[in-house]
Amino acid sequence: MKKFSLIIGLLAGLLFGVATPFSKYLLNEINSFLLAGLLYWGAAVIFTPYIIKNYRKEIQYIKIAKNRKSIWGIIIFGGFLGPVFLLLGLKLANSSSVSIWLNLELVATAILGVLFFKDHLDKTATLGVLFALTAGIVISFQEGVGALYSGLLVLLACICWGIDNHLTALVDGASPQSITFLKGALAGTTNFVIGLILNGFNVPLKIFIFALILGAISYGLSIVMYVTSAQYMGATRSQILFSTGPFWGILAAFIFLSEPLNGYVIMSMVLLAIGIVLTNLNFHKHSHIHDSLSHVHLHKHDDDHHDHEHDKDIDPQKIHSHLHKHESKKHSHKHFPDIHHRHDH
Questions:
Q1: Torsion angle defined by CA atoms of residues 26, 165, 98 and 90, in that order, rounded to the nearest 10 degrees
Q2: 288 CB contacts (<8 Å, ≥6 apart)?
Q3: Where are the domains of the chain?
């Protein structure tokens, strides 16, 4: 599952990264609230067929008390506040700079994880986080006074998404598609109504369609890929993979917006690349206890946690999902703070 999680985490970063320069273009026509609403509406629309088909199965997991609290937090912080802060900041700076600053989400996720969410970081991973933070500082040198305001707004967005990331990693049973749909539908509608009022009830049809498509791809598909990765690698390490997004955002800004690839940008990209590598080196190993647990998530039988029996219709060596039980177990092995390893140290 690690290779699978790595791949989809990287794809999530790519899809989200290209949204920044295109969002910069759309902000010339509509306000931040309206664009945030349309982007998340797009994320909801792409998974509407899935929700209609699997409504009965999904609703039972959404109603679980601990999931319900987490999902409301995801909607408020990740769907409503985060994108608005980001797009307000994007109005004040180059999309290349904002792409790099978005890696403050990695820093926020890491700090919140260590303080509140039992997400362990060893010395190497901590060093990687510091490299990512340094990349954000270096890129700020190319901006003027507006960088302070823009940077603070992006930082607020990153803190909101850091909370969202950890709450998402803790949701058990509910699919990434249903989480994305709820976030998109509820938070998207709220932002859209506010933005529509501020925009004088005027939305150009071309902008409306473009924003929905961008939201479906760069927020809908990207979020589902990130959620799946986070449930297996933990929020912080999945965020590292997601942090490759700026590379793609900077490249897209260079191609479509003619933003320069100067020394600050290149240096920041190098620092970020080093940070990504360091935080994905796994040296965390100790004896730990797993309590008895029944839950639903994607898995296959290539680790020391899934050895249950199946019906003959299921191939245990392929990725699959169903309700399964884990017996109480004590063992020692290298692990990420995934859905099975949220323990104290």
A1: 40
A2: 330, 331, 332, 335, 341, 343
A3: 2-285, 292-327
